């Protein structure tokens, strides 16, 4: 059985993992909704302002990088056990 501190850290890591996964899912869903609406109702014309579009792309990219980094760290920790 692990120490209370280790269990707390594992719980916090699980919380952040869930949050990052849910955030990325929402970002993908939002992007797909924008694409669908743009194609269906606006003849493919971009709906978002360029800064907003860039911010959405950056946020998605950084969230993906965060998840990749987390997964790499988990794999690294499993290999050292």
Structural overview:
The protein has 81 residues and is mostly helical. 84% of the residues lie in helices and 0% in strands. The longest helix has 38 residues.
Quick recap of the structure?
The protein has 81 residues and is an all-alpha fold. The chain has helices at residues 4-41, 50-79.
Strand content: under 5%
Order of helices and strands: HH
Low-confidence stretches: none
How far apart the termini lie comes to 15 Å
Average pLDDT score: 91
Our Rg estimate from Cα atoms comes to 18 Å
Notable features of this structure?
84% helix, 0% strand, 81 residues, mainly alpha, 2 helices
What layout of secondary structure does this protein have?
Elements: H1 4-41, H2 50-79
């Amino acid at each position: 059985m692990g120490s209370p501190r280790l269990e707390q850290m594992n719980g916090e890591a699980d919380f952040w993992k869930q949050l990052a996964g849910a955030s990325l899912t929402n970002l993908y869903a939002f992007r797909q909704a924008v694409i669908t609406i743009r194609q269906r109702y606006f003849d493919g014309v971009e709906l978002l302002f360029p800064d907003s579009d860039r911010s959405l792309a950056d946020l998605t990219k950084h969230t993906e990088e965060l998840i990749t980094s987390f997964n790499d760290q988990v794999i690294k920790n499993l290999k050292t056990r």
